[in-house]
Structures are given as C-alpha cells and as structure tokens.
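Weekly modeling sync, notes
Attendees: S.R. (lead), two postdocs, one rotation student

Agenda item 3: backlog of single-chain predictions. S.R. asked that every request posted to the team notebook include the full sequence so nobody has to chase files. The rotation student volunteered to paste the first one in as an example of the format we agreed on. Action items at the bottom.

Example entry:
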Amino acid sequence: MDQLVSPKTFHDPVSSRLGYLLRRASSAMMADLGSALAEIGLRPVEGTVLILVGANPGCIQSELGRVLGIKRANMVPLITALAVKGYVEKSPVDGRSLALTLTKMGEAARAEAEAAMDAHEARFDKLLGGRDRQALRDALLVIAADGEEDFAG
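Predicted structure, as returned to the notebook:
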C-alpha cells in the first residue's frame, strides 16, 4: 500500500515559481473583489467596463475590448448585458462601430464599483504593509505589457 505524504514532508517545487505565485495571488484578489462587487450586482469585468466607459464617454466598443484584452465575440454579450441592466447606452458611430456612454444608473453603478475597488485596493495595500508596493506594480506592468505584445502579435 502506498504511503500518504504528510503536509510536513510534502515537497512543493512550484510554490516559488513566479507564474504560480501570480496565479494564486490573482485568484485571491479576484475572489475578494468578486465578493465585494457581487454585493452591488456586478462582476469584476462589468465594474471595470463601467469605470472605463465612465472615464471615456463615447468610446468605441471594439477599442474597449482591445484595452481589456477581450475578444469581440465576448465583448458583445458583456456590453449587451450592461445595456439590459440600464447601465450603458450604445449608439452607432459608423457601419459596425458602437460608441458607449453610461446612463444615470450606469454612473451610479460605476461610482459604487469604483468605491468597492478602492476599498479592495486599500485592503491589499494594507496587507503589503508598505513593502515594495510600487515595485510590485511596476513589475506587473512590465509582465502585462509583454503579454499585450504577444496578444497583439
């Protein structure tokens, strides 16, 4: 019969790998954010879209998808759902492009999402206790930019 490995002797060669740590940290942060936004009836991607549209009224749906790294096929139902909730208005710009603006309800939801995200960020900033927060942000930006080049290429 095989011996069970106890937690004290379990060898974990992946726990120090950057990708593994990023995935675990991302999972923890997104679960926390998801819970906070669920209280106001939003998913993280919906809150992010509302914040970006609020900051860029009249932006084009395809540009928003590009900035977020979301394929057109996935952007359409996302924006449609926000429009059905009464948060986003779509207006044609040319043959296929749609400009997005927030409704009054959308602006209120954006403000709530932004407050929830600010509280979420503050929670994790406090958890880091002032240790290299900016260095972490800078490093993540480098990794994300490299990924965007791969995505665009």
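Discussion: group reviewed the output briefly. Helices lie at 18-38, 44-55, 61-68, 72-84, 104-128, 133-152.
Action items: rotation student to repeat for the remaining queue; S.R. to check formatting next week.
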